[in-house]
Amino acid sequence: MSDKTLPLSYSNNLIFELEKAFYDERGKGARFRVTTVGQRYFRERCLPKLASSEISDILGTVGSLLKADGIAAEVSWVNEERLLRVRVEGCVHRPVEEAMLAHGVEPFTCIPANLMVLAIEEKLDRPVELAEIKLEEGGCALLLVVFDQRPTLG
Amino acid sequence: MSEMFTLADAALKVIQDRRSIREYTDEPVSEQDLDRILEAARQAPSGENAQPWRYVIVKDAETRKKLGAIAGGGSGRRFTAEFVTKKMQERFTGLQDETKKRAAFEKLTSGQVSTFLAGAPVNILVCGKKDVWDLPYDTSAAIENILLMVTALGLGACWVIAPCIDIRDEERIKTLLGLPEEFKAVSIIAIGHPTRPHRPRPRLPIHELVFRETWGEAYYKEPA
Question: What is the ipTM of this complex?
Answer without folding.
Answer: 0.92
